[in-house]
Amino acid sequence: MIIFILVVSVISIYINHIYFFNPISFKQDKITYLSWNWYKKPLQVEYLVAGEKLKTYIFQDSSEVKIVISELKKSSPINQQQSTSDTEGNKAMITVDIRQLQDGNNAPGIILLHAQGYEGSSTIRTGRIMETFKITDDLKNLIEKRVKQAK
Asked: Which single residue of 4, 6, 119, 133 has CA 20 to 30 Å from 55?
């Protein structure tokens, strides 16, 4: 019994060290539609603002990744008829990508989550089929803060 507990503990520590999610608590849904083992550490969040100039802000902090994912999971899907057109006017397009970094050298790897919207909007398109979601106020504020920090 002690050996079993020890083996399970070692496996759990290994999984938590290597992967962002673990297979027991991971919930696959419209936001995190890939299998849990796709989310291999390290991950980063990239904010891209496509206005008059192209600006980016890259955040390599797992707590930022966790906030973006959890706030997107709290967001409510809306149908296209309910969504207002955020493409009118001169609003900058914003993309938020969660990207896996390649082992060892922190070079950009595959994009695991892609979301796009427009500056000042309370909706964002994301997921496997790019559904429209009404984002939480916390996520909207975070995105606005990162847009201001983008270079």
From this structure: 133
Beta bridge partners of 50: 54, 93
pLDDT greater than 70 at residue 85: no
What is the reported pLDDT for 87? 53
State how far the Cα of 26 lies from the Cα of 116, in Å rounded to an integer: 24
For 82, other C-beta atoms within 10 Å of its C-beta total 10
For the CA atoms of the chain, what is the radius of gyration? 17
**Calpha distance 20→36 (Å, rounded):** 8
- Alpha-carbon 42 to chain mean position: 13
User: Which residue from 117, 116, 98 is spatially nearest to 108, judged by alpha carbons?
Assistant: 98
Read off the pLDDT band of 34 (50, 70, 90).
very high
Rounded to two decimals, the pTM is 0.85
